[in-house]
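Hi R.,

Here's the chain you asked about this morning:
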Amino acid sequence: MKIYKVLNKDLKSPFRKFQFELGKEYICKDFDDNPLNDCSNGFYATPTIEGCLYTNISNNKIIVEGKAFGKSVFADKIFKIRHEKLILRRVLPESEIRLLAKKEGLKRGYNIEKALYPINPLNLIFNNKITDKHVELLKQWALVRASVRDSVWVSVWGSVWGSVGDSIRASARGSVWGSVRDSVRDSVRGSVWDSVRDSIRDSVGGSVWGSAWDSAWDSIKAYIGSLFLNIKKWKYIKHKENKYPFQSAVDLWKMGLIPIYYNNKWQLHAGKKAKIITVIKFDN
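And the predicted structure, written out as tokens:
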């Protein structure tokens, strides 16, 4: 069976720090073949690129292709699969991973590639020039964010859980589908969280950090929601069918801008240090 495994660049496993070598056969002598035992003895690897979402592949991680043989235990079809024996053959180049992820994503109904390689807006180059288009997108985002019942996350996650179903749940039922949903969230958050959080905090200062982070996190949630492609109606917000209601935040995100709200004003931040580009106050 062809398998994929996420490792650190030094070929150590991210969690147990087991050192692998390419081309070497590994045998788990105390392999646990009981599918009811979660995270037990064996070599964990997935038959799909999608399965690599269990941990984000930023921060010096790689995906290695190999072969599993002997006994295998499938606690689910995607993430929790352990094997008695395996050989790791080669490190996959990013271009090949992206191509495989795009193909799998078309079948699964969500953007696996962007979940594995999410955009960090602070890594994009912005020329510090704010245009009417930026202001209009910010205004749209301010109105939408204010109109959502409870939070952007309630709308995004409730919609993803309730509506994306068929294409994913057909092969990932119950808790497995929950793992898919949570893995997309965790992969994106794990890839951009530290950079955005620390840069925004340094930019605005600790005294207003809590309020600033709430609005930055809402932008991340909006970006995550945009990765699910087949949802026609998003919960708790009025919008045109087939139109993503939080697209304004996503557009700003892809332009390299993070909108931050506190003290009744909006700020747009950009660049490695999340520099404040502009401050805008909209009329109520």
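DSSP finds eight helices and eight strands in the chain.

Let me know if you need anything else.
M.
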